[in-house]
Every structure is written in C-alpha cells, then in structure tokens.
Amino acid sequence: xxxxxxxxxxxxxxxxxxxxxxxxxxxxxxxxxxxxxxxxxxxxxxxxxxxxxxxxxxxxxxxxxxxxxxxxxxxxxxxxxxxxxxxxxxxxxxxxxxxxxxxxxxxxxxxxxxxxxxxxxxxxxxxxxxxxxxxxxxxxxxxxxxxxxxxxxxxxxxxxxxxxxxxxxxxxxxxxxxxxxxxxxxxxxxxxxxxxxxxxxxxxxxxxxxxxxxxxxxxxxxxxxxxxxxxxxxxxxxxxxxxxxxxxxxxxxxxxxxxxxxxxxxxxxxxxxxxxxxxxxxxxxxxxxxxxxxxxxxxxxxxxxxxxxxxxxxxxxxxxxxxxxxxxxxxxxxxxxxxxxxxxxxxxxxxxxxxxxxxxxxxxxxxxxxxxxxxxxxxxxxxxxxxxxxxxxxxx
Amino acid sequence: xxxxxxxxxxxxxxxxxxxxxxxxxxxxxxxxxxxxxxxxxxxxxxxxxxxxxxxxxxxxxxxxxxxxxxxxxxxxxxxxxxxxxxxxxxxxxxxxxxxxxxxxxxxxxxxxxxxxxxxxxxxxxxxxxxxxxxxxxxxxxxxxxxxxxxxxxxxxxxxxxxxxxxxxxxxxxxxxxxxxxxxxxxxxxxxxxxxxxxxxxxxxxxxxxxxxxxxxxxxxxxxxxxxxxxxxxxxxxxxxxxxxxxxxxxxxxxxxxxxxxxxxxxxxxxxxxxxxxxxxxxxxxxxxxxxxxxxxxxxxxxxxxxxxxxxxxxxxxxxxxxxxxxxxxxxxxxxxxxxxxxxxxxxxxxxxxxxxxxxxxxxxxxxxxxxxxxxxxxxxxxxxxxxxxxxxxxxx
Lengths: 396, 396
Hints:
The structure is a homodimer of 396-residue chains. Chain A is an alpha/beta fold and 396 residues long.
C-alpha cells in the first residue's frame, strides 16, 4: 500500500507466463498492433503513434525528451515535486536550455502561472508531470494545451503516477507527447512505458530520422545530427511498431504481454469506473487516516485519487513504524524524497490494491502501530471513518 | 529455431508470475543482491558492479557506451556484421570520434589486425561484439585484453548472442565492460540486460557522477558535464544496486525475477555443460543442414555454437520457405540483415531449444519444405547426418 510499485493484478502476472514467439511472427506483430489499439483507448487518443518504450517509466520520459529536444532548444519545466526535477534533469542532459518555475511541494500551478512563463520563455517544449507521487499532487492540465497551441509550444506530460486512477484524456487536453508506466494504477510491474505522440510531435521527431548503417537501404535517411540516443530514437521505434517493422530493438515480449493485459483490465473495467473506484478508495483512505488523528500533507483538493501523504506524527519513529507495518502486518507504506524524506508517509490505494479490504486492513494495522508507538488513538477511529465513506457510497 | 528470441524455458516463464513487492522491501533488495551474485558466476567475474540494465540488450549496450564515452573520445570499433555497425552508431550518437576497421561479413579479425588498429588509433575504448548474430560469427577475444592493457585502452564487448552457448570468461579476457541479453542462450525473453564492469571502468564512470536534484543531499556530486543520459547513467545505477540503494529508476521487478531464473538455470546446468550442449546440438544442426545439400555461410571454424547460417539454395523462395516452415510446421527460422538479407537462412540451436528433438524436427520439416519447393533432397539426409553426430556423442 505504498506509492508504487504495488501488488500486480494476478491476471497480469499470468499473462507474462505465456510462451514467446519470434519477433516477426504474425501473431507477435498482431499482438503489438492490438496493444497499440488498447493504449489508444487508455489514453483516449486517436494518435497513430501509440506504443511501448521498452524500459521503466523513466525510459519513456527520456525517449520523449531526447527525441523531441535538439541541443540548444528552450524547454520550460514547471516543478512541483521530485519528478519535475527529473524532467529538468533529463532535459538538461539532452542539451536543452532549461527554464523552470517552481511552487512549494504540496501545491500545484495555476494556468495563469504557466501562461506567464510560456509567454516569457517562449520554449519549444513545455514538460510537466501530471501526478507527482513525491507530493501526491495532480497538476490540472485543462487549458494548458490551449496556452501551448497559442504560443506554438509542444506540450508533454508524464502520467505514470496518475494514469488509470484519475481522469486523463490526451486529445481533449491537446497534448503532443505523453508517457506512462504500469506499476501504479495499471496494476502491473515496472518495465514497460506506454507512450503516445501527436502528429505534430511525430513530425518533429521524424525530421530528425536517421536509419542505422547495419540495416540501411538505398534512399534511407542519414542525418548529420541524429537524435542523441539510439535506444530512445522514437523515429526508429515508430518504424519498428509501424507497418515497415524495421528492426530496432528486440521487443520485450513478456513485458508486451504484460502491458497488453494491464490495458485490457482497465478497458474491461471502463476508464470512468476505474477512476471512480480510485476516487472512492482514496477518499476512504484519506478519511481513515484523518480518523487516526493524522494530518494530511499538501493541497488536498489537488491530490491524486490514488495516493495520500500524511505527516508522520510527533514522537513516532517514521521508519520504525513503516518497518512494523511491513514486518508485523505485511503491509508496505512509503516515505518520500528530498524535503519530505522522513517527514511524511505516503499511502497508496491504486490498481489492484484500490479495494475496500486493503484500505480497512491498512487502517487497522496502522492504528495498532501508532498505539504501540505511544500515540493515543481512538479505537477504530480510522476504520470507522473509512466505513462511513463506504456506507455513504452504498458499498457496505 | 531462429536466431533469437526463441522459446523461453518454462521455468523462466513461471518465475515471472511471482507477485511483486515494494522496491525497498528487504526481500526485493535481497533478490537484487542474489541476482548480482548469480551473474558474477555467469560472467565468471569478481566485478562488484554486476547488475541488470532495465531494457533490451540494446539498452545494455547504450548504458555502457554512454557512461564510458565523453564527447570527443576516440573509440575503435572493429566491425564484422550488423551489430558492429550498431556499436559504431551508438558510439557516434554518444559524441565519440569513431574509427572503424572492417572485415567482410562471415569473417572475424586476427589479433594482429586489432593490435595494428589499436596502436594506430590510440582509442580510449575498444568496442567489439563477441558473437554477431547477423553473420553467426564469434570473434575470438583471447589476447585482445592484453593488447588493450598494454595500450591503456578500455575493452568492451557485447555477448548477447553468445553468452551461455560459447565459452566466455570476463576476468580471464581482461574485459572492462560487458553487456548481454536474455533472449538467446539464456532462454528468457528480451527486456533485461545483464552487464558487468571492471574497477577501471567503474572509476571512469564514477568520475562523471552527478546526483539528480530531486534526491540530492548536501555533499552529493553535481557535475557540469554529466553522462548524457539519465536513464543509462551507470554511476546512478551502481548506487541503486549498491548498499546506498539511492533511488534511480523503479526496478522492473518481473524482469528481475526472470533474469534471476535465467541465471539459476544456467548455473544449475553448469557453464561448461551448457556450452557443450550448445556445441553438440549446433554441430548436429550444421551437419544436418549440410546433409540437406545446403552450403554453410561464412568461416565455419569461427561460427557461434548456437546459430548456423546457410545460403538459400537457388530456385527456392527464401521467404516462402520460411513461411511454410512457420505455418505448416510451427517452426521459425530467420533470414539476416543488410547484405545477407534474403541470401541466407539462420537456424538457431540455443537456450531451451538446444535439444535433440528440436534439431531433428527442424531438419525433417526443412527437408519437406525444400522438396515441395522443387529441390532434389536425399530422403532423410538431414536427420541422418544429425543422428550420426548424436550417435558419435553417445546421445542416441
């Protein structure tokens, strides 16, 4: 019940035990096509270029940034947590001229703050995290696509922490590039990064295309300033996933099966239903934690449905309590990074673990741990508050 | 029965269906430690920095090169097939001044050819593929470590295609950096890249260390010219796998289980036994293919044990025959890339598929396909020749 990775859905685990086939086997390429179609549903997009980057969610981020950014490009990064710093860091390593704006951890930006910076900086690319797990905040993205369109700016976001548990529709938001991961609300393991790219992003990326010497045919593109990475060269990755099937990496077959199953589970449930489930169990957890006398961190109105941060109460050894939760109750909860390290606990309710039983068990366990740590806790205060949420929702 | 990926060992597939735990769960970090120890056995090395790069084997290559190469560094790449071109391409994208030497596809280099180039170019880094699947050749690496040591050159090789099926001992060869993949003789899927680095390589990489802003503590390294990639920054990846457990990516848990099981299977069998098995079944396949009247491509003395290339005989539609193998017999064989595309078939005998039954079935099927394609083939010529090899080896 930490901020992710969490338990995977057993359907996902079983999907990975299917036997492999060759990478150009018609069944394999059909599976790739099917996975692309499923992620178009998950992302709510018509983008042809919707595919997996083979690596963890961070690999998806780097593929998007290194393929879009040419050295010297201006990039704007609004930072509201650790993963904003990561976007900055990756953009810098891509050779970008990076401009940042920051709000304190626990807050999000207003559209006006972002517009002011866009107009001032005139970047080629705006990169912002949708949900930053480090602070549990979700940045509202509504209206930012318009700001970018008006200013001729490419609009990128990473939705690893939020996808599946919070409303997110790529085309409606006017996004040009989006990356994600499986290890949060998608109920899978880390190791595959679903991503999608608008026509405008694809054009920028394709203009940088360069086919490798070992598989180059006459007339194939050779570029004097190719994308700085071969592995993350999306122009080549598009051609591998596209009808050309031009060999690039060898697709990670088991992780492909896995990513497909994650998407199937989400689409079977229905995107809106999945968001509603995360909202309900997240709210039950929030009220439950408050019922234990804990203070919620940050701007509660803007927290993600799927993770809640609370201040570690005075007098309690935060790491000791987490160890007791894990060793005595088999339940993991997290702390956070940087300025929040050792200051907060983060409790997730996501993917396969966004359930009533997991919420109630976690609250009951945490009550015991707090009491043994010397806190005065109302007996059943956490579980009771969560029950109230469930009863109100008719889930009792 | 292609050049890989091939069928995975069922033990590997089952290992991936184990439930996940959090990334700092003691069981998780123990599993990471255990995996490192297993790959030290697989690579026959004492290197502390032996770990997995989360991505396909190409990700391992890029991590090694981008972490070792600073823009402007001289790199020597002896090329004897497609994957030599890949090393050149990745080194170029890392900003290296790349020098190449080439032999025709189907041949390998003599140590003298490599020494001449090392002395002439005086590179910082020599990068060479051990086994290049595109040509089926294995470059002998004996003596090259000494040449590099004498000239103060870092020595890197990729063993994706050869590891587990051909004798390979990292420390004995004096290698500084080695990367691999699971989808060949290790009997797993693509998606995780085992890698190992000598003290000398670690020193070069650590000197370029830069800790990301989002998790930086006082006194942590900040480098004005950091490694160009964040995802492939081995200095950070070392700290994630090391006792510091400094967060970088979120380890791809299911692929970790998978990589661990691949190594366990190999260590259980014994490295020498596994090589002997690949040698035997590869030889049976070679003789069987000749028994079908097919001409073997390239310098047979230097082919890998685990894959054999034969010229597509005149009058036979190479792709049509491959389609018949797959659709009628359920057996995949491959063609190759670049100058060999459509000229040769590549038949693998690797990992879980390096077995007598798979060899004999493939030869029987290929006989039928050749005959239906209009070739005159001696009845049982392929299977008979393979049987002879098995009988000689006492495996009948």
